[in-house]
Amino acid sequence: MAKQKTPFISSCHARQLAVLTAALSPFIVGGALVAKEYGDWSTPVSAEIGSDVDLNTASNDGCPILSPDGLSLFMASNRPGSQSLDIWVAKRDRTDEGWGKPERLPAPVNSETDDFCPTPVRGNRLFFVSRRDEANGDIYSTRLTKDGWEAPVRLGPNINGSAQEWSPSYFEDDQGRPVLYFSSTRSGRQEIYASVNWGPAKKVAELSPDSSDAARPNVRRDGREIVFDSTRSPNLGGPDVWVATRPSTSASWSAPQHLAGVSSAAADTRASLSWDGTIMMVGSGRAGNEGPADIYVTRRPRLTGMGSKE
Known about the structure:
This protein has a single domain (29-299), classed as 6 Propeller (Neuraminidase), CATH 2.120.10.30. 5% of the residues lie in helices and 37% in strands. The protein is built from one helix and 23 strands. Strands 8, 9, 10, 11 and 12 form a five-stranded antiparallel β-sheet that branches. A four-stranded antiparallel β-sheet has the order 3-23-22-21, with no helix packed on it. The radius of gyration is 21 Å and the shape is globular.
C-alpha cells in the first residue's frame, strides 16, 4: 500500500489554525467546561456607515436596539421632529443593507414627555420607558397590530415604583417563564433587578456592586449573556460597557468583565445584543460624534452553536 502523504501547511495557515484552535478551546463558566461560543468584539463604528441617511444627528441619539429579525433599529432621540426625548425607528429590507431614514413612532407610543429605552420583542411587542405618568420614569408595554399601536400599559407594582426604572430587557428562561430585567434607583442608585413570571422584582446581587451604578441591562435572547453600563472600576471615563455570562438561566452570573475595546473615554450606555448575539449596538459620547451621543455598532463572529435557543 502506498504511503499516505502528509498535507503541507504553510506557516501562515499554521498561524491561522492556531488562532482558530485557541478561539474554540474550552473555558470554565460557573464551574462547567464549555466551548467558547463567540469571538471578540470589533472596534465600534458609527451605525450609519453603509446607509445613505443621517442615522446620527447633531442631537442626542442613543438607546439603540435591533428588532429580533434585524430589520428595524429602535432608538431614543431628541432630533428635530421630536416633542421631547422620543422613540424613533429606522428600517431596512435586508440585514445586509444600510438603514432607511428614521421615523418617529406615533402616539400613543410617544407622548409629550420623555419616552425612551425601547425594547422590541417577538410578537410585535414593545417595552419602553416613559415619564408620562411618573416623573422618574416607568416601564410600559404595547403591541403593534394591523390597526396600529395599542395603548401602552404601565407594568404593575412588581416592576414599577416611585423610583427610576430604566431599560427593560425581556427573555424566556430555560423553563419557558417570562423574565424581565431592568435597572432601578429604588436602593438609592441604579442597580439591576429581575422579575420572573411577572413576580416581585429582586436585585441581581452579582451584577450590582455596593459602591457604583449598574444600569441599562440587556440580556441575550437565551438568558445566558448580559451587557450593561457601569461606573465601577476600571473604567475609561465611564460609564463603560460590561458583560457577564452563565451556563444556564438557573445559574448565577459570572463576575462582570470590562469591555475596554467597546468602551471609550466618554459615556457608553445602553448596550444591546442582536437576536443571534453577533451584533452589539451602543450609545456613546466618544470623540468624532455628530452630537452629544451617537449610535455605534460592533460585531463578533459566532464560533459554535452551543448555548442558544432558536
